Amino acid sequence: EKRMALETRTRAWIKSIVWRIIGIFVLGAIAWLVTHSWKEMTIITIIFHGVRVILYYFHERVWERIHWGRIKHPLSSLPVNKELTPWDLKIIQKQLKELGYID
């Protein structure tokens, strides 16, 4: 089943931070093994990952504007003014079945 995923800016930020946390531990371990200095390890890790979080966020935002490789949902051109209720979804699903768009 294909579903269109939309992402908020907050979600993009959270994803970038979680990924950086993983990277912080990996780079911290490598930096400490090379320098054997907690101070140097901390400085290297903080600077590197601070820059990477910001770059990753903007990388994600740029890719949100690139339509290549995306599948356009056939109903994406319909404006929806409010959240659909479960009842609304049932009605829509029933109509789509009757019209032969879904099984």
TrEMBL record:
It holds the Pfam family DUF2061. The keyword Transferase does not apply. It comes from marine sediment metagenome. This is DUF2061 domain-containing protein. The keyword Transmembrane applies. Keywords: Membrane, Transmembrane, Transmembrane helix. Residues 14-64 form the DUF2061 domain. The chain crosses the membrane at residues 12-35, 41-58.
